[in-house]
Design a protein that fits this description.
The protein is of the alpha/beta class and 511 residues long. Helices cover 34% and strands 16% of the residues. It has a domain of 152 residues: Rossmann fold (3-Layer(aba) Sandwich). The protein is globular and about 60 Å long.
Length: 511
C-alpha cells in the first residue's frame, strides 16, 4: 500500500519556518505501528502549486493524508482536487481544524473522503488498518466519512488519549531538520548568545487542550480535556533533542503549557535538576503569576525557578481590557492580574508576549483605547489582531445567527488571518475600526519608543536583532520579541501545518 503524507505551507517564501509537531506526531505513531510512507514537505521546500502537482505525478498512491488550520480551507480544497485528478482511486484523508471543525461542510465542498475530528494518531492508524484489509471505513470513531453517493456520516468522537506520556516521542528524521533550524531562529524569544553561535530551535509538545473555552478561540482539542505530560517525560525528550540534534532552545508548542502553579513548578524543578543547557519559552495562563489567591512570594519564587531553568519568554493573552468584552469572550481574567504577571516576569528577567483581539460586536473607539492604555501601563506592545470568527467557536455561531455569515463555504474561502479585518461585526465602519487601532498603536509605539514604522504597527516583521554589551564587555546578539504576528493567537499556529492533532494551530496560547 502506497501512502503519502503532505505537509502544506501557510506562507510560501516566509523566512520563518517551524517543525510541524502535529503531522510529525501522526507519522511517528503510524511508523510505530508498522506503516511505511512517503512524505512531501511543501513548507520547508517552498513548493509552488505547480511544483506540488509535478511531485504528485511521480507516483501513484493508495492513501494521501494531509491537514492544516481552517484559514487554509481554500487551498486544502484545491489540494484535494489535484490529488483526486492525479490519483483517481486514492483515499484522501484530511485532519486538523480545516476538516475536523467543519467536517460536513469540508467534505461536501472538497474531494476528501474522510475528515479526522480531534486527535489523529490512533484514528489514522485505524483508517490505514481497515483500508489495507478492505474493511468498512464509514463508522470509524473520530471521523466524518463521505460515501460514493456523496452521503456524509459524522461518527462518534474518539476518546482523547488520557496519558500523553504513552505516545511515542516524535521522530524528527522524517524532516530536513537543518533547514528548519536555519529558519526557526525567530522562535528563540529573548535568546542571548555568543556572536557566531546560532540558535537551534525545536518545538516540543508538553500539553494538549486548554482549561478555558474563550468564545473566539479556535483549536483542535476543543472537546477534549486539558492534559499534560509528566516532567520526567518532557526532560527525556529535551535530552534526546539536545543529544541528537544539538538544539539549544525549546519552543513549547502548546495551546496552554501551564494551567497551574504546581504543574509549572514541577517542570521547572525537573529542568533544574537535570541541568539541561537550554533556553525555552511557553504559553501560560494570563493570571498564572498574577493571581492574588496565591502568596506573591510563592509566585515570584516559581517565576525565579523558571528563569533558572532557562525560561526567557512566556506568551499569554490579554485580548481586551474592557470588562464587558471580557465577559463576552468568556475570558476569566482580571486586569490587575495581567499587570502583576508582567511585573513579576520582568523582575525575574522573563519577557512577556501578549496578544489582543479587537472587533467584538460591542467594540468602540473607547474600548480600543482602554485596551491600549492597559498595555501602556504594563509597558507591553502586543500582537494585534482582529476578531476572526472561526468554526467551533462561540463567535462563529454568533456570526451565523446574526446574519454576518450567510454562506459558510464562501466565507471560509475568503478568510486570511487575524491581522486582516476579514469580518467586521462592530457598529463602526471598517475605516473607523482600522483608524482607531492605528492611532492607538502609534501612541503605544511612541510611548514605548520602539521605532516601528507606520506600516509595521500590526505586521511588525516579528523580530528585530539587537546587539548589546554584556557584563563582561563582550558583544552578544539578542533576539527580542516585539510582536509575533503569527504566534499566540488563532494560528501559530501557529504556523503548525499539521494533520489534525498536536497543538495544531496554537490558536490562543495562554488563556
Amino acid at each position: 500500500m502506497n501512502i503519502l503524507f503532505i505537509n502544506p505551507s501557510l506562507r510560501l517564501g516566509s523566512p520563518t519556518k517551524y517543525l510541524p509537531v502535529g503531522i510529525a506526531s501522526v507519522m511517528t505513531y503510524a511508523e510505530s505501528k508498522g506503516y511505511y510512507f512517503d512524505f512531501l514537505d511543501i513548507d520547508i521546500d517552498d513548493l509552488s502549486d505547480s511544483q506540488v502537482e509535478r511531485e504528485l505525478c511521480n507516483k501513484q498512491y493508495n492513501v494521501v493524508l494531509t491537514g492544516s488550520i481552517v484559514t487554509h480551507y481554500k487551498w486544502i480544497k484545491w489540494l484535494s482536487g489535484v490529488v483526486r485528478r492525479i490519483n483517481q482511486d486514492a483515499l484522501i484523508v484530511v485532519g486538523n481544524s480545516v476538516a475536523g471543525s467543519i467536517p460536513e461542510i469540508f467534505l461536501k465542498n472538497s474531494e476528501a473522503d474522510i475528515a479526522v475530528i480531534g486527535e489523529a494518531e490512533i484514528t489514522i492508524c485505524e483508517i490505514l488498518d481497515r483500508y489495507s484489509k478492505n474493511q468498512k471505513l464509514s463508522d470509524i470513531k473520530g471521523t466524518a466519512y463521505k460515501s460514493v453517493d456523496g452521503k456524509i456520516t459524522v461518527n462518534e468522537r474518539r476518546i482523547a488519549v488520557k496519558k500523553l506520556d504513552e505516545l511515542p516521542m516524535i521522530d524528527w528524521r522524517f524532516f530536513d531538520t537543518d533547514k528548519y533550524f536555519e529558519k526557526s531562529y525567530a522562535g528563540a524569544d529573548g535568546l542571548l548568545f555568543e556572536e557566531g553561535k546560532k540558535p537551534r530551535v525545536m518545538p516540543l509538545v508538553s500539553a494538549r487542550g486548554c482549561v478555558f473555552r474563550c468564545t473566539f478561540c479556535h483549536f483542535v482539542f476543543w472537546n477534549d480535556p486539558y492534559r499534560y505530560r509528566s516532567p520526567e517525560n518532557i526532560v527525556l525528550e529535551i535530552e534526546r533533542n539536545v543529544g541528537e540534534y544539538g538544539i539549544n532552545y525549546v519552543n513549547f508548542w502548546d495551546d496552554l503549557s501551564f494551567g497551574s502553579l504546581n504543574q509549572a513548578e514541577r517542570l521547572a524543578d525537573a529542568l533544574i535538576s537535570a541541568k539541561v543547557d537550554i533556553n525555552w519559552n511557553a504559553a501560560v495562563r494570563t493570571d498564572l503569576f498574577g493571581n492574588s489567591k496565591f502568596p506573591e512570594s510563592k509566585r515570584r519564587g516559581i517565576a525565579e525557578k523558571f528563569r533558572e531553568s532557562g525560561c526567557l519568554n512566556l506568551g499569554f493573552s490579554l485580548e481586551s481590557a474592557n470588562e464587558e468584552i471580557l465577559v463576552m469572550m468568556e475570558k476569566k481574567v482580571r486586569k490587575e492580574y495581567f499587570l502583576k504577571q508582567v511585573e513579576i516576569l520582568r523582575d525575574c528577567g522573563i519577557t512577556s508576549s501578549v496578544s489582543v483581539v479587537f472587533g467584538y460586536p460591542i467594540e468602540t473607539e473607547a474600548t480600543i483605547n482602554e485596551t491600549f492604555s492597559l498595555c501602556e501601563a504594563g509597558g507591553i506592545y502586543p500582537s494585534i489582531g482582529y476578531l476572526l470568527p472561526l468554526p467551533a467557536t462561540g463567535m462563529y455561531e454568533y456570526a451565523i445567527n446574526n446574519g454576518f455569515i450567510l454562506d459558510q463555504d464562501k466565507y471560509l474561502d475568503s478568510i486570511t488571518e487575524r491581522q486582516d479585518l476579514c469580518l467586521n461585526m462592530t457598529a463602526m465602519p471598517d475605516e473607523q475600526v482600522l483608524d482607531a487601532i492605528q492611532i492607538g498603536a502609534e501612541r503605544l509605539n511612541s510611548v514605548l519608543n520602539l521605532g516601528l514604522g507606520e506600516d509595521s504597527l500590526i505586521r511588525t516583521g516579528s523580530y528585530r536583532n539587537h546587539t548589546k554589551e554584556t557584563a563582561d564587555g563582550s558583544s552578544k546578539t539578542m533576539l527580542r520579541r516585539i510582536k509575533n504576528d503569527v504566534s499566540f493567537n488563532y494560528s501559530q499556529s501557529n504556523f503548525d501545518n499539521t494533520l489534525g492533532d498536536m497543538t495544531n494551530d496554537k490558536s490562543h496560547a495562554g488563556k
